[in-house]
Structure formats: C-alpha cells, structure tokens
Amino acid sequence: MSTKIRLSRAGAKKRPYYRVVVADVRSPRDGKFIERVGSYNPLLPKTDPNRVKIDADRVKYWLDNGARPTDRVARFLGEAEIIPVPAQRNNPQKAKPKAKAQERLKAAEEAAAAPAEEAPAEDAAPAEEAPAEAASAEEAAAEPAAEEEAAKAE
After folding, report:
1. Is the domain of 115 the same as that of 72?
2. Residues 104 and 58 both lie in one domain
3. Higher pLDDT, 98 or 55
4. 6 vs 94: CA distance, rounded Å
5. Cα-to-chain-centroid distance, residue 84
6. Phi, psi (5° rounding) for residue 68?
7. Does 94 or 116 have the greater pLDDT score?
8. What is the Cα–Cα distance from 37 to 73, expressed in whole angstroms?
9. How many domains, in total, are found in the chain?
10. Which of 27, 62, 77, 135 is deepest in the core (most CB within 10 A)?
C-alpha cells in the first residue's frame, strides 16, 4: 500500500484549517486516513508557533515506512528539520507566454528596432522643416477666413 503525508482540509467556509495526515494515495483529500500526525492553521501569523504542529516521531516512523510527503508538507517538515529543506519548485516554462504571444512580441520588437535605426537620420531633417510648414499652413488658412469676415462685415 502506497501512503502519502498530506493535508486534509477542515474548518468552516473561508476559515481553513488543515490536518496533516498519513493516508492511502487512493483515498480522497478529505476522506479516510490512517493517522493524524499534525495540524496547520494558515490564519495564524507566520511567526506563531501554533501555525504548524507536527508529531516528529510519528512522521519519522511513516517516512521510514515509505510514506512520501506532498510539496507543502515537505516544506513544513524541512522547516521542522525532520527532512532536508526541499528546493523551491519553480517552472519558468509555464510562466513563458505561449506561441502566438511570443510571435506578437517578436514582431513588436522587430518593428520597434527597424524604425529606431532609420529614425534619427530621417527625423532630424523633417523636424526642422515641420514648424515652418505648419506656420505657413496656418497663415494660409487664416487669410481666407479674414477675407470672408471682411466681406460679411460690408
């Protein structure tokens, strides 16, 4: 029989409380278990000694008999120095954007890189000419408007 040391949820809605139990791997999370070996109250502050309580002797017995802790319980056992602290699991592959998002990012980077290389040479000349053109366009638009107002006044 294969066993795990895992958490079993108890407590009310939005007020979680977990038991650390040894259970058959085939039994449901909150179902039948072999032995209760501790508790975990996530509502208490992290510095509170009552947040995680573990019966170290019973856990060592079950570990010697082949029980495997889940990731969360292994962290608790590592902090209690019953087993070596497990390495923190981080899967950067899952955090990466998917294929379509990567293509969009790549296209955006290429589009940003291409104008940036050509832009300084082209933007320098039009930047000097643009104010003069804008001013002449404004004057040209203002002259017919002034003529129309003068015609209406007469």
Report:
1. no
2. no
3. 55
4. 25
5. 27
6. -115, 125
7. 94
8. 11
9. 2
10. 77
Q: What is the CATH number of the domain that holds 66?
A: 3.30.1320.10
In 10 A of CB 62, how many CB atoms?
A: 20
pLDDT of residue 92: 78
Give the model's confidence band at 75: pLDDT under 50 very low, under 70 low, under 90 confident, else very high: very high
Q: Are residues 73 and 109 in the same domain?
A: no
Q: 52, 70 in Cβ contact below 8 A?
A: no
CA-based end-to-end distance of the chain:
107
Q: Which domain holds residue 149?
A: 97-153
- Of the three residues 64, 88, 112, the one that is the final residue of a domain is 88
Average pLDDT for 66-87: 92
Given 41, 71, 88, the domain boundary residue is: 88
**What is the predicted pLDDT for the residue at 130?**
52
Closest CA to 39 of 23, 20, 55, 59: 20
